[in-house]
Structure formats: C-alpha cells, structure tokens
Amino acid sequence: MPSGTDSSSTATVIAGPSSVAAIRQDPRGGLDRSGQMDSSAMTQPDTPLLDTVREPADLRALQPKQLRQLADELRAEVISAVGVTGGHLGSGLGVVELTTAIHYVFDTPRDRLVWDVGHQCYPHKILTGRRDRIRTLRMAGGLSGFTRRSESEYDPFGAAHSSTSISAALGFATANKLSNRPGKAIAVIGDGAMSAGMAYEAMNNAEAAGNRLVVILNDNDMSIAPPVGGLSAYLARLVSSSEYLGLRSLAKKVAKRMPRRMHRAAEKLEEYARGMATGGTLFEELGFYYVGPIDGHNLDHLIPVLENVRDADEGPILVHVVTKKGKGYSFAEDSADKYHGVQKFDVVTGAQAKSPAGPPSYTKVFAQALLAEAERDDTICAITAAMPSGTGLDIFQERFPERTFDVGIAEQHAVTFAAGLAAQGMRPFCAIYSTFLQRAYDQVVHDVAIQNLPVRFGIDRAGLVGADGATHAGSFDVTYLATLPNFVVMAAADEAELTHMVHTAAMHDDGPIAVRYPRGDGTGVAMPAAPQRLEIGKGRVVREGKTVAILSLGTRLEEALKAADTLDAKGLSTTVADLRFAKPLDEALIRRLLTTHEVCVTVEEAAVGGLGAHVLTFASDEGLIDSGLKLRTLRLPDRFQDQDKPEKQYADAGLDAEHMVETVLKALRHNDTGVEEARA
Q: Where does 121-271 show beta strands of DSSP type E?
C-alpha cells in the first residue's frame, strides 16, 4: 500500500463504469471555499494487486484472469496521482488496458516501446518502476509529463511533439535487423497524430523492417474505425492467427507458380477481401499487414491478438485498437476536452482547482484582438494546426467558422496554405505555438519569406512554459525568424501591446510579420479603447535615466523596471526601453542609448542569436563599442531547461530583476552596495 493512506478514511468508488478500485480520501480534502485545491486533499487508491508490480517482469508473472483487476487499480492510481499533480488525464485513462496488454505480451525493455507524443504515458510510467515518483509529475526535479530517455530504460525514445513514433520505431527495428539482434519495436500512435504527413512518410518506408515492427493505431475519436464488437474481435484474432497466416503463406507459394498476372490478381483479391472485412486497405497499400479494429478496453480481445502479432512471421503489422479518452472516470468521459489536460482536481467531485481571478491570458487577448480585426476586415482568416482552443481560435471559429481553418497536426501545410491565401489577397493569421512552428521552418523560409508574402504569425507560448519543460519551450523563434530577410518580428511586453501588435500585423501588407507572446496571464495594464498601428521598427522609452540602459524585448519589461528601481536606489540612474521589434531594430533609439549611457543591457526571453546578437552586430558595424561602452546581453542559457514554475525557470536563466542588477554592477565593477571596487 502506498504511503500516506489514512486507515481511518472513508472509501469512495471512482465515478465511471469500468473502474472498481476504491479511493481512500481524507475527509478534510477537496476544494476550499475560494475554489482552490486544499493541500490536505490527498487521495490514495486501494491497489493490492498493483502493489505487487514494480516492473513489467512482475506483470508478466500474473495470470491472465488477474489483468482486469490490475487495470482497474492502475486506472485508479492514474486518477489519484493526476488529481494531486495536474497534467494530462484523458489520454492516459484511454490506454490503461492497452498499456497493460503491451507490457504483458511483449518483452519490454528489450522490445522497444515508443509512445507518440507521450502525454498518455502515465500508466506506462507506473508499470515501469516509477510509481513511487508518480506524484512528482511535471514538478521541479520530478517525472516528466512525457517519455524521456534519461528517465528510464523503458523510455527508449523521448517525445512530446506528434507523429514521430513510427519513424523512431522503424529506426530501432532496422538497427536490430542490421545487427541481427532480437527484439521488436512497437509504436503506439493516436488517430490525431496520423493526420501528420510524417507518420505516412515513415509507413511508406517501413516494409523492409518486416515483423520486427509493430504499429498500434490508438483510435480514440472513432474517426477511422467502424463499430467494434464480437465480430470484429473474431476477425482480428482470425487474421492474426498462426493458422491463418500459415494458410496465407501456403497460398502465396502456390500463387507464385501461377502466371505473373494471375499471381498478382490473387494477391490483390486476398488483400481487398480482408480489407473489406476489416477496413485496413489503406495500410495494406502502405505495406502493412492490418489487424483490427478491436476494442482497446477488452483485455480478452487485446491479449490474444497481441500474442499472435508478437509471434507472427508476417510484418510489419498494424494493429487498430479503438479506445475512449477518459475511460473509467465519468467526468473525463463526458468532457474529453476539459479533462485532456487538467489542473489539480478533487477525485470524487471532478472539480478542478481554479486559478485566482486576474488579468486575461495572452492567448485570450490575442484571440479577442484578432476577432475585432476580422469584424472590420473580411479578408482576415485564421489557421491553426490542431490547437483551436490552445491558440484561442475557438473564439474566432464561433464567430467566423468559414474563415477558420484547423488543418490538423500539419504545421508545414498550415504555413504554405497561409502563403497561398496571402498570395490571393487574403490576410491570413497563422496561430501556432513557438515550439510547433519549428516543424514548418522550411515552409516559413521557402514559401513565405523568399516570396515576401504577407502571412501573419501569432506565436503563442513564446519563452519558457513551466511544467511542460524543454520540449514545449518557445526558445528559438526570435533567432530563427529574425535571421530571415523580409521578416518583421515583434514581441509584446504586456496585453495592451499585444492588442496593438495584432492590429499592426493586420494592417501590414508589405511582407511576413510575427508577434510572439507568452503562456499565462497578462500584467493587468489598462486595455486600449482602440488599438494603435505601431510604426514598424520603432521602440519606446518607458523610463528615462542617464547611466544605465536596459533594452527589453517582450514581457521581461516588468522585471527590467524592477531592476531599474533597485539600480536607482544605488545611485545608478537607469533608462528602460521596450524595443518592441527584434527585426527591424530601432537603430536610431539603440544608437542614442548606446552613445549616452555607460552600461547597456539587452534582455529577451529567447535563445542566443536573437535580439542581443542583432544589437551586438549593429553596434559592431556602427563602431558603437569602440570607445569603451559596456554592452551585455541577457538571454536564455545554452541548454535545455527542465520543468519548473516559470518564475523559477527565468530566475535560473538569469532573466529576473536580481540578475539584471547583478549584470550591471559587474559591468561597472561595483559590489552589491554600490561601492566601486579597486580597478585592477
């Protein structure tokens, strides 16, 4: 029994049809009167069978009839843990039985299991030696919310972005084949991830891997599958059985003795007959032997099919399983969108902890500003790559469905589609997270920048993102966009500036333009009654001083102003400028600041190669540092930062007020009391 269980607590059954494990809950737990999660609300499931399983070898020692109980207890543990930590819930609950079956049938970690995206991997982590840390998910020093190679040998390939699993698994399978090593490679990919071209590129090259590669298509949206039930389960067992495959192999040998045209016709007849019965003709055309669809929550169906697949000489094989997001927890089943990613929540009531009331999020401000522009201009349209709610475009879609395009997980297509719209006179806004725009960089360069097409980019999640860690951090967009000719790159310092920048982008028809903004809420500044069109490449001075100048780009402006207060108190009069534009630079403003201050510091929420590099290049080209100016750049460190609270991540990166002050004092050779040290 996990530690922390209160023997005097009451038992409550988790809501949902398939989970029967009991939850022991502290009667004091739940949400407090303000709607916040009570820190005393610790729930622990009653999991006697799961307690005996530390790793998959222990799971494989169980009898098949015990697996239903184990899966129920595993589901209860996932619900309990995510209730404490927050994180991805619905996707993990949907693959509890599938995770159990895979680890029961296959010889992990020798058989390499690759999860696509990885947000559904919480049950996998519990079964692979990490249960004792499962309540540290997404916390500083805790377990990652995704698969991670450095975390466990059972995570052979890290993930967090979509549609990479088949390519990676194909690599493992091919390496084993070339080195004549045993072991399968199993890729688990969702139907949503199958909308990305990369998945099909991998499948188109997978045939040579043979039976070493198994792809499991986790269809949780019924977007591909016909109804599943007893007949489809029977067919799946039949076409994956050794008897059927043996008979099929014999028939192939006989057919090969026929004339070539008859041989090919017989081969196609068998393929299409099986395709008509099971629905897998597309995958057969890509070189896969298709099995399915089968009920992904029925272990009596899953286990024999996966055993047949494991032992088959045929391959590569695609197994099509149908699951339900949130399975076994009624709140998540009924509201899949609300329980896909959750805050801490009360397990019994399903109530999620509420964030304190405050300013609107940058995402919402962007969406509302774009909506206002679209009301004035019917050429404005919005494009997202499977993230309508994450980018705020669900608000836009409600008002202008005919001008909203969700292209699925297809960032490359999204960018080139936007380029085509722009070339035909529309004003497209492509709203994509910074980290996901990386997937479409060639299209940004080749289809947008070189042709100087006026595509507008709304770059959400710019900067550090907290619990999602390095895989979702928006660290590189300033560097990879500001290096491109023709591009305009803006960064909003607050929500009012974001409103102005959306308007500026809408009015900019001279080429591509991007505005970046962070995850989270605004600063609470007053919102403008009407947006202003900013002059391209012009910053603003928000505080005048004489000795020190801080040149800020983006939302570090608030910390820069705090640093200025501290420096002023030390007798160092400080100017703070909001540059607004990483490209084009406000050269006149930068020249004035660099020639009238002793120390100048650039600050940005971006990697090396961004604003600081451009300012240094400009200063060098113009000879502005030839006369002893002390110019320093503060940016994200040259490493991938682990998950933590954003404010701690920025402190670790040296991008808070304290480090800005320290940088200035070191440049002036002052100590922390402002007394000048002896010059060497």
A: 185-190, 213-219
Coil, strand or helix at 542: strand
Q: How far is CA 561 from the centre of its chain?
A: 32
Separation between Cα atoms, residue 472 and residue 494, nearest integer Å = 21
Residue 635 among the catalytic residues: no
Contact 488, 514 (CB under 8 A): yes
Residue 502 contacts residue 369 (beta carbons within 8 Å) = yes
- Tokens at 16, concatenated: 């949902």
Name residue 4's amino acid: G
DSSP structure string for 373-418: HHHH-TTEEEEESS-TTTTTHHHHHHH-GGGEEE--S-HHHHHHHH
**CA 287 to CA 297: how far, in whole Å?**
27
Tell me which of 77, 411, 495, 605 is the catalytic residue.
411
- Cβ-contact 76, 43 below 8 angstroms: no
Q: Which of 112, 324, 325, 344 is catalytic?
A: 325
What distance in Å separates the CA atoms of residue 121 and residue 133, rounded to the nearest whole number?
14
What is the C-alpha separation between 199 and 431, in angstroms, rounded? 23
In 3D space, the residue among 498, 503, 501, 462 whose CA is nearest the CA of residue 481 turns out to be 462
Averaged pLDDT in 10-residue chunks for the chain of 680 residues:
32 37 40 39 81 97 97 96 92 96 98 94 96 94 93 94 95 95 95 88 92 94 45 51 55 52 52 50 84 92 95 93 92 81 85 84 98 98 94 96 94 97 98 97 98 98 94 96 98 98 98 97 95 98 98 98 98 98 98 97 97 97 93 97 95 97 92 43
Choose the catalytic residue: 324, 439, 556, 635.
439
Q: Are 434 and 515 contacting, i.e. CB atoms less than 8 angstroms apart?
A: no
CB-CB contact of 296 with 323 (8 Å): yes
Active site residue 253: no
Check residue 483 and report its DSSP letter: T
Q: How far apart are the first and last CA of the chain?
A: 64
Longest dimension (CA), the chain: 96
Q: Determine the Cα angle at 81 with ends 79 and 86, to 5°.
A: 90
Q: Would residue 138 show up in a list of annotated catalytic residues for this protein? A: no
Backbone angles phi, psi at 599, to 5 degrees: -130, 135
Residue 507, SS3? helix
Can you list the domains of the chain with their CATH numbers? 10-342 (3.40.50.970), 362-516 (3.40.50.970), 540-667 (3.40.50.920)
DSSP string, 121-138: -HHHHIIIIIGGGGGGTT
CA distances from residue 446 to 26, 417, 433, 452, 585 in whole angstroms, order as listed: 59, 13, 20, 10, 23
Please answer whether residues 26 and 42 qualify as being in contact, where contact means their C-beta atoms are separated by less than 8 angstroms: yes
Which residues, other chains included, contact 362 with Cβ-Cβ below 8 Å and sequence gap of 6+? Answer: 460, 492, 495, 498, 517, 518, 519, 520, 521, 522
Question: 542: closest CA among 594, 604, 497?
Answer: 497
Q: What is the rounded CA–CA span in Å between residue 235 and residue 243? A: 13
Beta bridge partners of 217: 189, 320
**C-alpha 318 chain-centroid distance:** 25
In single-letter form, the type of residue at position 182 comes to: P
What DSSP character marks residue 537?
T
Write the DSSP assignment of 328-360 as a string of letters. T-HHHHH-TTTTTEE-SB-TTT-PBPPPPS-SP
Report the predicted TM-score, pTM, of the whole model to 2 decimal places: 0.83
